[in-house]
Write a structure and sequence with these properties.
alpha/beta; Arc Repressor Mutant, subunit A; 12 strands
């Protein structure tokens, strides 16, 4: 279980949605009270904690977590406003395990969470994803087509991983922009189309697995 403390409902819902899609259980809270109530009944594997919250802020919450015996070992990733060096340093000094500067991409969040969990304890996860002759190694980030390595950019890799983790599921262009480029990314959906085009080209014969759903977006179909 991962707890997400974020007062912006749209961001919180997207975080929970992405975590669920990546195989994690997640719950969200908009303030300190909800978090501490939940901690009375279930101890999470990790807490995503925003600094700017109504009422008690994230720094104060972190201090309480670190002095209580029951919660002092729970990994915490702080979400800071972009460029707030003081908040970042303060959080790390108080025992935060990592931080993310807003706005951050959802795939970056997943990668940071997995990295922290690897450092703090065992994590069960799928090591390989495969559809037909297309293989993606989640540990080494290597992509193979017919056993030949394919070089992808970070965004192309994150797109491919999103599709392969959710075969058959349709993603709109706006959803992909939010998940890959960040919740506050300002750009045109054409950006997604361009990256899908280059990804298909690099995947060769396996590029056809990524289907266009007219008027909606894209999905990856399992090999028939």
């Amino acid at each position: 279980m991962i707890y997400c403390v974020e007062d912006d409902a749209s961001i919180r819902d997207l975080m929970i949605y992405t975590l669920n899609s990546a195989g994690f259980e997640a719950k969200g809270f908009d303030c300190a009270d909800g978090l501490f109530d939940a901690l009375q009944t279930e101890k999470p594997r990790l807490i995503m904690l925003d600094i700017m919250l109504p009422g008690e802020d994230g720094i104060s919450i972190l201090k309480k977590l670190r002095v209580q015996t029951a919660t002092k070992e729970i990994p915490v990733i702080m979400a800071t406003a972009k460029g707030t060096e003081y908040d970042k340093v303060t959080g790390l000094d108080l025992g935060a395990d990592d931080y993310l500067a807003k706005p951050f991409g959802m795939m970056e969040m997943i990668s940071r969470i997995k990295a922290v969990l690897r450092r703090t304890g065992p994590i069960k996860e799928v090591k390989m994803l495969q559809i037909g002759n297309l293989v993606l190694n989640l540990e080494t980030y290597i992509v193979l087509v017919n056993n030949e390595r394919i070089q992808l950019t970070l965004k192309e890799y994150e797109l491919l991983r999103t599709f392969m983790e959710n075969p058959g599921r349709v993603f709109t262009r706006d959803q992909l922009l939010e998940m890959i480029w960040g919740v506050s990314y300002i750009g045109e959906t054409r950006t997604v189309d361009v990256h899908i085009g280059t990804l298909r080209t690099k995947l060769g014969e396996c590029g056809s697995f990524i289907e266009t759903v007219r008027g909606v977006g894209y999905r990856m179909e399992e090999e028939k």
